[in-house]
Amino acid sequence: MQAFLDIFDIYLLEAVINGILLGGVLALLALGLNLIFGVIDVTWICYAELVMIGMYAMYFIVQYYGLSYFIAAPFTILLVAILGAALHYLVIAPLLTAPPINQLLATGGVLFVLQSFATVAFGIDFRNLGIRLPVLAFGDMNFSYARLLSFLAALVGMVAVYLFMTRTFTGTAIRAISQDRQIMALMGVDTKRMYLITSALGGALAGLAACLLVLQYDVHPFVGLSFGPITFLICVLGGLGNFIGGFIAAFVFAEIISLGGLFSDLEWGYVLAFAFFIVMMFIRPAGLLARRR
Amino acid sequence: MLELRSVNAGYGTFQALFDVDLDVKAGEAVGVIGPNGAGKTTLMRVISGLIRPSRGSIRMEGVDVVATPPHKIVSLGIAHVPENRRLFPQLTVDDNLKMGAFMKEARGHYGERLEVVFDLFPRLKERRNQMAGTMSGGEQQMCAIGRALMSNPKLLLLDEPSAGLAPVVVQQVFELVKRIRARGLTVLIVEQNVQQVLRVVDRAYLIEAGTIRASGTSAEMLASDTVKEAYLGV
């Protein structure tokens, strides 16, 4: 009996830690989406597809051109940042004053364009970097290096965004825009330019997420579906546009998935997480930390 | 310094200003008085570029304000303290002041300007890490004026600085306007509180239904029958 409990605790601890590691990457994904929503008041339905394009970029730079992972990563982040700015400039900016449903439909359209583009251009094969990172054994627990690395990189990315948003003039202006759009011109702020910078930043976060996810998952045109919906649920659970709420919600979700997976199959973890989401929507429809208006 | 010539402006099909002529000379304090809905706020908004005139010219030290993009107008030396203060309620006092120094020309002097503002409003220094939205109305008005001063403006536009404040605080706000003037700033101030504002300014314009009805020195305005009957209740 005592031996059983010891092993049980080790597994529990392993699942908790894996949940934290998963939460880091989910929080990074949620931050990008929240940033766009909080500042521009637009939801990028195609956010996960930007990540998908970034994963393909990693795949081609590493596998096709044979460059190292660490050279490919900055290129990918830059590429997806440009893609984010282009998405804003070409699709969102002309629709800024349009009803929200039109904006949703337009970015939803971009989702299908990107999926179809990837299918035509890259085919439907599952591809991977061919990098297999070792597993770290710590006591009786096993952690994948890929997850550990992703967690740390996601944390660094989030801290960098936090410093940018709180320490710089531009970051402060980005936070201010969501509180009072009309008077930004009085501060000498060109809102159009701020929206472009924010979109590029959102894209860069999607690019960073792509660099990290490509270590753990194969890339194919529909890979966005495996983490797009959960990113949206995290943002909604945390209160759309609320950075801290999204951060907490990401870890809550990740722990439910990880611990749920411990007691039965991994799929049940997801079932529990989504069930939790539905219940929470009845209890706190505006999110864990609803944005105060 | 500031020169408006036959300015017409409005919102959509509603016209709020009709052929307004107005001058502010360097070092002056000028008041704009008039009833609710006369177009006082529109006048301020059209000067700072929040709305564009449909016709007419606005010049700041000879520069065409109408041809300047709205976010560049603050660089001409015009700072606007909008009606109802419009602070960023969920930013700290520090961050609100930082936004006032956003433009490139002001960033380099951020530290000095902060000292000037804290010297003028010691209360803001005590509250620098507090969310602006949680302060009292008077403190928020200080913060709004402080934010405008961060850009080191030549001309300060004040829109109803006494609105919604307790009488004692209103007194303090007008004292502040005097102190700001003493620092050599030119001030254009819109007020419903006619008696108070005429004690602070050199000259004033009376605006009604979007047109300038009268203008003159404060003494002339105080003595004028139109002003007396309608606004001073004498």
TrEMBL record, chain A:
* Family to which this protein belongs: Belongs to the binding-protein-dependent transport system permease family. LivHM subfamily.
The molecular function terms of the Gene Ontology recorded here are: transmembrane transporter activity
Where does the source fall among the domains of life? Bacteria
GO CC, sorted alphabetically, is:
plasma membrane
| Family matches, as InterPro entries | ABC_transp_permease, BCAA_transport_permease
Per the record, membrane topology reads: Multi-pass membrane protein
Task: Give the subcellular location.
Answer: Cell membrane
Cell membrane as UniProt keyword: yes
Keywords tagged on the record = Amino-acid transport, Cell membrane, Membrane, Transmembrane, Transmembrane helix, Transport
Pfam families recorded for this chain?
BPD_transp_2
* Cross-referenced PANTHER family: AMINO ACID ABC TRANSPORTER PERMEASE PROTEIN (PTHR11795:SF445), BRANCHED-CHAIN AMINO ACID TRANSPORT SYSTEM PERMEASE PROTEIN LIVH (PTHR11795)
Residue ranges annotated as transmembrane are 15-37, 44-62, 68-92, 104-124, 144-165, 194-215, 221-240, 247-264, 270-290
Q: Which GO terms describe its biological process?
A: amino acid transport
Query: What is this protein's name?
Result: Branched-chain amino acid ABC transporter permease
Automatic annotation (TrEMBL), chain B:
Task: Please name the GO terms of the biological process aspect recorded for this protein, alphabetically.
Answer: L-amino acid transport
State whether keyword Nucleotide-binding applies.
Answer: yes
Record Pfam families: ABC_tran
Query: Mind telling me which PROSITE patterns this protein's record contains?
Result: ABC_TRANSPORTER_2
Record's keyword annotation contains Lipid metabolism: no
Q: Which UniProt keywords apply?
A: Amino-acid transport, ATP-binding, Nucleotide-binding, Transport
Q: Which residues form the ABC transporter domain?
A: 2-234
Task: Extract one GO molecular function annotation from the record.
Answer: branched-chain amino acid transmembrane transporter activity
In terms of InterPro entries, this protein maps to: AAA+_ATPase, ABC_transporter-like_ATP-bd, BCAA_Transport_ATP-bd_LivF, P-loop_NTPase
Briefly state the protein's biological role: Involved in beta-(1-->2)glucan export. Transmembrane domains (TMD) form a pore in the inner membrane and the ATP-binding domain (NBD) is responsible for energy generation.
Which protein, by its recorded name, is this? ABC transporter ATP-binding protein
Gene source species? Bradyrhizobium niftali
